[in-house]
Amino acid sequence: MLSYRHSFHAGNYADVIKHIVIIEILEHLIKKDRAFDYIDTHAGAGLYNLQSGHAVKLQEYSQGVGKLKREDWPELATYFDILAKHNSDGDLKFYPGSPFIAMHFLRGQDRSWLYELHPKDAELLLKNMAKITRVRVMREDGFKGLLSLLPPISRRALVLIDPSYEIKTDYATVFDTISSAYKKFPTGTYALWYPVVDRKIIDQLERKFIRSGIKKVQRFELAIAQDQFDTGMSASGMIVINPPWTLLDKMSQVLPKLVTTLGGDGAFFKCDELVGE
Ligand SMILES: C[S@@+](CC[C@H](N)C(=O)[O-])C[C@H]1O[C@@H](n2cnc3c(N)ncnc32)[C@H](O)[C@@H]1O
Questions:
Q1: Labelling 210: which of 122, 130, 174, 263 has CA 20 to 30 A away?
Q2: 171-224 pLDDT, tens digit each
Q3: φ, ψ dihedrals at 104, nearest 5°
Q4: With helix as H, strand as E and coil as C, how does 231-245 read?
Q5: What are the residue numbers of the active site?
Q6: Where are the alpha helices (DSSP H) in the chain?
């Protein structure tokens, strides 16, 4: 039984880095007219009310997106455009999750597959997506669902894999799933989100990618504090396979600024290539 609800965490620093990375990838994909697929294996509810009881309880967004001012971030214009689209009166009341961020880019020829297992969030996602035609919401396991879709007919895709890791085997499952997916569809772009709660687990995950034979792997991480033990998440990052050529440059500009704005004592970032061509 899943208990994680993203509504407690929406708009936190982990969402900020994750969503900036997928926006850069999606901006690159739409440069060509050719259709692409967006596959979100862990989609969440799609849209979050930052004034809801859940969001107000932890106030995580106020330490994340709430600290960013549009005028300071010309390089994140699209991110702010998407936020503005969901907050027409100017105040930040709603935070769009990955499905709505992707919808900003999808064109008539593109398709989207959103997987969500939590019954309440799956229902919310269905409601939120009800008027959008080129989307399929699947109340199924996103890991298995992904493998059943590959390779996509379009032969172009962004796959976002964004588990909450409340099930500890997810750390192994993400790697095994991506390895199998890559065999079926080696040219897709895969974006994997990870939390740093125990650095050893992430070091191990990165080593698996480095030894896997998978090429073109980059890593982007935002740590708001030094690595800690037993105090929850101190950093989070994205591992991206087959990134657009612009991503490393973009994140090299954005991450130092994000660390200064969102980080505390001991904050740091990582922005590098784990495996080359
Ligand atoms: C971190 S949240 C997703 C946030 C969303 N991707 C975003 O950026 O807005 C992870 C979601 O995955 C769902 N989930 C957990 N295990 C799953 C699985 N095996 N398949 C599909 N969804 C799953 C959880 O219910 C939760 O809503």
A1: 263
A2: 999 999 999 999 999 999 999 999 999 999 999 999 999 999 999 999 999 999
A3: -60, -30
A4: CCCCEEEEEEECCCC
A5: 162
A6: 13-29, 53-58, 77-85, 98-103, 119-128, 142-149, 170-184, 199-211, 247-262
Residue type, 109: Q
Question: What number does the ligand 1 atom closest to the CA of 167 have?
Answer: 16
Assessment of whether the complete model's pTM goes beyond 0.90? yes
How is the chain split into domains, by residue range?
13-47+107-275
Ligand 1 and 37: CB distance under 6 A: no
> Could you give the angle at the alpha carbon of 166 between the alpha carbons of 129 and 271, nearest 5°?
80
Residues 23-42: tens digit of each pLDDT: 999 999 999 999 999 999 99
CATH number at 13-47+107-275: 3.40.50.150
Q: Residue 133: what pLDDT?
A: 87
Q: Is the dihedral of CA 186, 208, 113, 19 positive or negative?
A: negative
pLDDT digits (tens, 9 = 90+) for 51-100: 999 998 889 999 999 999 999 999 999 999 999 999 999 899 999 999 99
Residue count of the chain, please give it. 277
**For the chain, what is the mean pLDDT?**
96
Question: Which residues are CB-neighbours of 133 under 8 A, at least 6 positions away?
Answer: none
The secondary structure of 45-81 as a DSSP string is: TSEEETTSHHHHHH-GGGGTGGG--GGG-GGGHHHHH
Alpha carbon of 113 to ligand 1 centroid (Å): 13
Contact (Cβ atoms closer than 8 angstroms) between residue 236 and residue 18: yes
Question: Using an 8 Å Cβ cutoff, are 18 and 70 in contact?
Answer: no
Q: How far is the CA of 256 from the centre of ligand 1 (A)?
A: 28
